Amino acid sequence: MTASSEATDQAQAQSQAQSQADDGPDAARILVVDDEKVIREILSEFLSLEGYSVRACEDGEKALVELRLRPYDLVISDLKMPRVSGLQLLEKITEENINVLTVIMTGFGTVESAIEAMKKGAYDYILKPFKVEEVIHVVQRGLYRQQLQAENIRLREALTIYKVSEAIATSLEVDHILDVILRAAIDEVDADVATLHLQDPKTGAYEERTKKVNQHHEVSLPGGLPTPSFVLLTEQFTAGAPVMAHGLKASRYFTESQPAEHVVSYGSVPLTVGGRVIGALNVFSFTRGKKFDEGHRKMLAVLASRAATAIDNARLWDDLRHTNDDLRTANVSLEENFQTTVSGFSQALEESDVYTRGHSERVATYAEIIARGLTLPEPEILRIVKAGLMHDIGKIGIRYDMLNKPGKLTPEEVRVFRTHPEKGKRILDPVPCLHGLIDGCWCHHEFWDGGGYPRGLKGHEIPLVGRIVAIADAYDAMTSDRAYRRALPHHVALGEIDRCAGTQFDPELSGAFAKVLEAWRDEMRRRGEESLIPR
Ligand SMILES: [Fe+2]
Ligand SMILES: [Fe+2]
Fold first, then answer.
1. How far apart are CA 306 and CA 400, in angstroms?
2. What is the distance in A from the centroid of ligand 2 to the CA of 360?
3. Measuring CA to CA, which residue among 108, 119, 107, 117 is closest to residue 86?
4. Confidence band of 299 (pLDDT split at 50, 70, 90)
């Protein structure tokens, strides 16, 4: 085993976990719903033999409880059942936005009832009596389609977040960033209008900061756009409840000055800075049948968090500029922008990710300890610290549920994970003042013996900052809890780094790290900061 370069460590921890699991976490989950015991048994048996993870219920009511309890990929349901029928089950699934594919079985020999079910959102139907192969074929086709859809959504999410991150990287103009975010909001949820409202820090009043209209839709709003009432929104946000309302129910979120009867669907997510709501990202649909759902809300929440960071950074910078005229000199402004961009970036990454929270900062700390131990010049030390903060910035386009997946990473996921050094470089490339940080992002997964990635550099071909961050990164990854394993003790982590000196890590730096780290731990203990030291 190599020391914990995250991907390999993760893959190994997961392959062990996988072999212990019964069905394996990747088996598609199917729920069979039929009041006839024989049918439940036949389907359960055959589908299990095909490798699916199957459960069965005898009526729609029980099925609904089961569907609320755990995620399923597909439901095969009889139409005619006591209490809650197949059609009613379908209606409930749509109403509650449960993300599952439904296949209906009908025993009447009438295609009409099957068609009725398809109109209500069923994916396919099976006529009873059925052949088992036929059922398996329908299931396979349905799951394949669903998988394609999921891939497509994931790709779009990653791309949008990547685009937004790139806008933040290439532009320090808050207006431009907000523009990109609103456009992404419109595209992602197919809204007719999106607005961003902000609270004026002085007066407390909420004002529309910017608005975008979907270019592909024609919407006429005779009474103008309804104005969100922020007293109500903030109440809802602080209660932790999302704001997603359709039709007349939406009108309670608007002030009364404008008519709201044209609103088909309305969604709003908070912009939060330091735990305080500073504004909201709103989307409106005036198109019949176009409602926002939970997936849309999640996407909006990610965009809103990026917007909040950009605004927060811009405000800090504005305050600074207004309080001190000397800071207007080009050099200082560049340096300030640089600082806020760096911290904004690492914040954006960590906010979304509970397991790696604090990772960038700790890697920066360990990298600084090593750099100081080498008695490098002060500007070089500062550059290494910032490179430590930014080293994983390329992960910003990778879905964080994949980064922290407790199950096994598929070869495709490992491939995606391994793109993060290259992506980090691409994010920083367009920003001249961030060029000094590229090596830290690009080269922290290279191995001393040439076995690393992305370029397979060897020995001193790997820039010093890359070799330093590699050690800092591995030490922190090993001594922190992750989704797939608990933290390793300090001495075990250090032993791993020593064992991999000369293969994964620069041997000289590994030796130096053990010494300077010990001195740092002593110093932290003296200062009473034991909580910062891995046990
Ligand atoms: Fe990394
Ligand atoms: Fe890392």
1. 15
2. 7
3. 117
4. confident
Return the SS3 of 460: helix
Alpha carbons 82 and 125: distance in angstroms, whole number: 20
Q: Give, in degrees to the nearest 5, the angle at Cα 88 between 86 and 90.
A: 70
User: Could you tell me the two tokens for 145?
Assistant: 């389609």
Counting ligands in written order, the one closest to the CA of 480 is 2
- pLDDT at position 226: 87
Nearest one of 482, 509, 424, 508 to 162, comparing CA atoms: 424
Note residues around ion ligand 2 (Cβ under 5 angstroms): 392, 473
Given phi > 0 = left and psi -120 to 50 = alpha, else beta, which region is 440? alpha
Q: Are 367 and 469 in contact (CB under 8 A)?
A: yes
Residues contacting residue 331 through CB under 8 Å, at least 6 positions apart: none
Asked whether the beta carbons of 207 and 197 are under 8 A apart, the reply is yes
Q: Give 359 Cα–ligand 2 centroid separation in angstroms.
A: 7
- pLDDT category, 200, cuts 50, 70, 90? confident
Centre of ligand 1 to C-alpha 364, Å, is: 13
Nearest-ligand number for the alpha carbon of 364: 2
CA separation for the pair 485, 498 (Å, rounded)? 21
Q: b/e for 174-202, b at 16 or more Cβ within 10 A?
A: beebbbbbbbbbbbbbebbbbbbbbbeee
Return the DSSP state at 24: -
CB 242 within 8 A of CB 280: no
Tell me if 81 sits within 8 A of 36, measured CB to CB: no
DSSP annotation string for 107-158? SSS-HHHHHHHHHTT-SEEEESS--HHHHHHHHHHHHHHHHHHHHHHHHHHH
Query: What pairing do the DSSP bridges indicate for beta strands 29-33 and 74-78?
Result: parallel
Structure tokens at 265: 């669907």
Q: Which of 140, 190, 369 is nearest to 296 (CA)?
A: 190
Residue type, 532: L
Query: CB–CB of 180/167 below 8 Å?
Result: yes
- Provide mean pLDDT across the span 412-418: 86
**Residue written as token pair 């024609």:** 218
Cα(377) to ligand 1 centroid in Å equals 26
Tokens found for residue 486 = 């608990």
Task: Compute the 3-state secondary structure of the chain and give helix, strand, coil in percent, each to the nearest 5.
Answer: 55, 15, 30
